[in-house]
Protein 1
Amino acid sequence: MAVVLLVEDDQDLRYSVASTLRREGYDTLEAESVRDGLAVYASRHVDLIITDLRMPGDGGLTLIKSVREEGFTGGVLVMTSDDSVATAVEAMKLGADEYLLKPISVAELSLVVKRSLERGKRDARLRLHERMASQPSAADANGLVGEHPAWKEAVSMVHRLAQLPLPDPGEGPQALPTVLLIGETGAGKGVLARELHRAADPSGQSPFVHVNCAALPANLIEAELFGHERGAFTDAKEAREGLFEMAAEGTIFLDEIGELPLELQSKLLLVLEAATLRRVGGTRERRVRARVIAATNQELPARVQDKSFRSDLYYRLNTFTVAIPPLRHRGDDAIALARSALEGFGKHFGRGVLTLSDEAEELIREHDWPGNVRELVNAMQHAALLSKARVIEPSDLQIAREADTHDGAEGLRFDFRRGPCTLEAVERELVEQALRHTNGNVTAAARLLQMQRSSIRNRIDRYGLESLVRELSMP
């Protein structure tokens, strides 16, 4: 239910407009002055503001200027009489979206309010697209392919958990619905998170916000998640909503939750338990209405034991847990996924129908797939693009070549026939391969190379490897 704040000093007109809005199904808050309106705005979440322009004391222009400077991104409508059209134009310059001429027509009021709220949702989706990368991973593109009972049970569990209701829009502390997905990297946590969101909202109208906690810079993650007010820090030139706010009515997917800094875990716990947040540098609580899906490939109980993950947050996340089996435990699902991926890449690369030879399928069946579905999909992409024939043989699969390489290698080797190998080039290659091996997880790559996270970050910047870092993404 959308929340509308109505600011009007004329009691009769305020009653008439508020009654109309309530009949239309809107949660309507009333104020008789700009001061009262700003007080209500500071204490409640608001989707749309309707204000008179001429009121005793501060006028509607003051209200519009204040809320826009504070970062309000919802709609603002002004009510005015014929002789103040010039003021209405000034209001539009300050950030009002439309104006209504007095006397107010009920039909026009309903139409303009509905149009403004729909425009607000479109604008929010546009901001979300602009803020986040929009490329789903190749593994996600293969959807729910698989017939193994363990995989089908995980999918069934996700469909049941999609029925968890969002908190009521009213006041009072309420917990956010939370689901924890656990499984190895590349096992399909992102696929199941999107499936849960799709099952909860088949219309696809609500946002799905994918946050990779490991990819966000440590000094910015709080502002990214919870937003910030203008002037909260040096570069905060204007207020900005956080990703929790942008996920309103939809889903926020906190991938790699185990990488969330300890100092932010308590703040996340408060958001999950009270469904409210406070922006960085802010003083007022903001309502949050979204389902939360967290995912990790780490042993969180062990992290709790070594005190690197809060036990209260773990038990809060662990209310509903879905365990995703690794690909090596899913029988012939690897063959089904390989065929599906090969079909898709064959069309994408204009190669027509590509098939796997019996020997290639046997190799796929025997491989352990430590990178799970993501590794398999990458192998099929490689084969679909570079194979010479339309029947894929073991020699076309990246896994075959890697196995051959490991069998014949005796330590690190360099091919000097291709030119000089500088230390800088070797270091760049090492960082690049670590990022590829960890699917862009900076923290995991740093751990793999036994480096400080800040050190590997410096090398990523120095060698221009930012594209390999997994940043925010959404469908």
Note: Residues 405-410 have pLDDT under 50 and may be disordered.
Protein 2
Amino acid sequence: MTAEDNGRSVEDAPFDPDESRALIERQRDVTMNELAPAWRLLYGVWGAAFLLGYGLLYLQRTVLTAVPPAIAGVGMFLAIVVALTVTTRDDIRVHRGLRGRSALAGARVGWAFLAGFCLVLLTVWRLYRGGAPEPVVALSLASLSLLVIGLVYMVSAAWERQRLRFGLGGWILGADAVALLVGMPHAYLVLALAGGGGFLTAAVFLALRRTDHAARS
């Protein structure tokens, strides 16, 4: 029951340190949620993109060989485009009006991703121009892309002390290593289940933690 419920003005109410602390913590949580990326959404979207995209590529190369490879490739491309669109929209939301060190750190992470993927595409293009077999080119594109994602996740998470994202980055690198060992076409299955599954598991974990936190508050 608050001071207003007792018919007293807020100014006349005695100071309640517990109520003030709870109010400060609620306001802090609201502010942090507004400024933080929607990791639950982002992990879910990228998990679905990996599961769908690499799953299509694997099925086309194994049980659906009558399907033209271009169709599976378009499916993978659209899945990545949707995930990138959601990520970009969330990044704009987070950094709208944000200034200072936080904005600079977020921009640097974005540049790290961009530089890494540009180098991946250049490397794969050189392999293709050099006459590397198609499975080698395809596996290089997939494995190098996950290498960039895993490393940037781990480095940025270590800097921000985010254990879940750090662990997810390590998991992605582990899935990438297994994919390289099994080779094509089963590498696509590993990336779909282990890569996509890792993102989806992280999304579910955050959803459960949020539900538990809401139940406690």
Note: The chain has one domain: 38-92+107-212.
Protein 3
Amino acid sequence: MSPVLKTLCLGATPFVLAGCSGELSTLDPAGPRAANLALLWWVMFWGSVVLFALVMILFFLAYFRSALLARFTPAHWIIGGGLILPIPVLVLLTGTALVLGEQLLPHGQAPLRIGVEASRWEWRFTYPNGVNSAEEVVHIPAGQPVDFEISAADVIHSFWVPRLGGKIDAVPGHVNVIRLEADEPGTYWGQCAEYCGEGHDTMFFRVEAHPPEVFAAMMEDNAGE
């Protein structure tokens, strides 16, 4: 690699890595379900890198060492390169996606369920004691799974807290459930991930995770609102 190209690659690395962190980064997980999604992303990324490398190796062999590949017939290329070669990679990627995806499903009953209603362009959260949150902030206990029961009042929205887990649609007249969990107390930003009108870009909310004893005290005091 030439010194100029090497310098450019090293200089660009911090800018590329900067996109892997931040309040809305899926590659900076803060909960077990988000960690599963991030792991799945990396498995898919490296799987694609392996496939790309294999194709490039064959390409360079065909271009610079064509005599080595002359013995192979078109049928060999179709069967070997088009069928046999991708199978182990695709089996690995598909199996990983199924295992990790199944772990994202809410099994059993979470100890806490919070109602969520989306409308243009705000979020309303309702705790089990019937208290509604204010200022588009929802409080949860850290280290415990929480089921969010999500619906919408007008059009389709999408509930998404990237550092805690995947997203799920908020559909009028229907309740979808997503289970999220924060490993540690802290603030985690969420947003609407489905375009819902001219105010869509302002439709953010905040998840505040507290130590369980602090959260319990807040619930006794009307969720601290």
Note: The first strand starts at residue 112 and ends at 119.
Protein 4
Amino acid sequence: MEREMLRQFMQLYNNQDVLSNLINSGLNSRYSNSELHCIEAIGKLERPNGVQLATLLSMTRGAVTKLAKRLLQDGLIERYALSDNKKEIYYRLTAIGEALFKEHEVAHTKWEERDIAFLSSVPIKEQQVVLEFLQKFNNYLQAKIQEESL
């Protein structure tokens, strides 16, 4: 049973990835989901820094640094510091990054509408069981991320 559940999760991830690639052609297809979610986070947070991004994206700071490096190289984001605190580094979107952010927002809305239509067809009791399981599994994975980050 456990291996079948893991196989179903893997198939779910793969199907979501394939579907995302089919729907998100053009500029979006050049970037991974992690990179797009980093763009999204930078676009939504008021003054994002590495710690905030790592927390929001459930990633290590090292992983966020690698993402930011690629996005900086591609001219999607830029780094800056406040005039009264040169130690703290923040990120913001460039005009190209802002265009990608908006493109991603449209795709994200389509994804939500598509999958909520399916989830609405699932009885509430089944949704509650699945939701509780997913919360437990995500908490387990978050704890493993913390362990691996030490």
Note: The longest strand covers residues 85-93.
